[in-house]
From TrEMBL:
This is GntR family transcriptional regulator. PROSITE patterns: HTH_GNTR. Gene3D superfamilies: Chorismate lyase-like, Winged helix-like DNA-binding domain superfamily/Winged helix DNA-binding domain. Keywords: DNA-binding, Transcription, Transcription regulation. The keyword Methyltransferase does not apply. Pfam families: GntR, UTRA. Residues 7-73 form the HTH gntR-type domain. PANTHER family: MANNOSYL-D-GLYCERATE TRANSPORT/METABOLISM SYSTEM REPRESSOR MNGR-RELATED, MANNOSYL-D-GLYCERATE TRANSPORT_METABOLISM SYSTEM REPRESSOR MNGR-RELATED. InterPro entries: Bact_HTH_transcr_reg (IPR050679), Chorismate_lyase_/UTRA_dom_sf (IPR028978), Tscrpt_reg_HTH_GntR (IPR000524), UTRA (IPR011663), WH-like_DNA-bd_sf (IPR036388), WH_DNA-bd_sf (IPR036390).
Length: 238
């Protein structure tokens, strides 16, 4: 509650919209703004503020020229060393990937430190859009030492699972990882690849994975649409 003790008008409208969303169901078209504003007795600017927050939260989806629709629930992916492909299939969704970049570049000082290689050493850069049921969910950029995995570009299926390729084709076993999660705004290029709104917050995940000998396998920078996906993990005491 605000200090003055009054609930903002838009927030009251937002709560009413949440109830309407539950009644309408996934995929339903929201009534026109003018009708909703009249129903709730508020200005259209107040209504738009409530709708904007629900879009940011992933409860609604706006399509220019078509209207605003009730969104499907977010996908909730576990924070674990598992394949994106396996995780989505277990949730009943069809995974997919679109190759954006596959190249060899020189490692700068920061990347070299993460991969425990010399600065300037060649690395493989793999960038792909992650899909769920044909819809873009994330943009994943992965860097691996070319000296350690020189055959990777030849054995990797560009739209397949990197995790499975590393384990099944190259015999690399993922043992542990350090991962950091924060919120950011996408660049115009990233928003275009994700078919998202640059004004909406994204989830940025940065990870360094290690093998059983403690040698770095990869550094990953993955940008996910905060309106379509969330993450969960299990915590244990001690």
């Amino acid at each position: 509650m605000p200090e003055h003790g009054r609930v903002p008008k838009y927030y009251t409208v937002k709560a009413q919209l949440v109830g309407l969303i539950a009644e309408l169901g996934v995929g339903a078209l929201l009534p026109a703004e003018r009708d909703l504003a009249a129903t709730y007795g508020v200005a259209r600017s107040t209504l738009r503020q409530a709708i904007s927050e629900l879009i940011i939260e992933g409860r609604l989806r706006a399509h220019r020229g078509r209207g605003t629709f009730v969104a499907a629930p977010k996908l909730i992916q576990p924070l674990a060393l598992v394949s994106y492909t396996e995780a989505l299939r277990e949730m009943g969704h069809q995974p997919g990937r679109v190759l954006v970049t596959l190249e060899r570049v020189s490692a700068d000082a920061e990347l070299a430190g993460h991969l425990a290689i010399a600065e300037g050493a060649e690395v493989i850069h793999l960038e792909r859009v992650l899909l769920a049921d044909g819809e873009p969910l994330g943009l994943e950029s992965t860097y691996l030492s070319y000296q350690r995995y020189p055959t990777l570009p030849e054995v990797l299926e560009p739209t397949g699972s990197l995790y499975q390729c590393m384990e099944q084709r190259l015999g690399v076993v993922y043992a542990e990882a350090t991962e950091r999660v924060e919120t950011v705004l996408a660049s115009p290029r990233e928003a275009l690849l994700l078919r998202g709104n640059p004004a909406l917050p994204m989830l940025l995940m940065q990870r360094v994975s290690l093998d059983q000998q403690g040698i770095p396998i990869e550094r990953v920078r993955a940008l996910y649409r905060g309106d379509r996906i969330g993450f969960e993990t299990r915590l244990r005491a001690g």
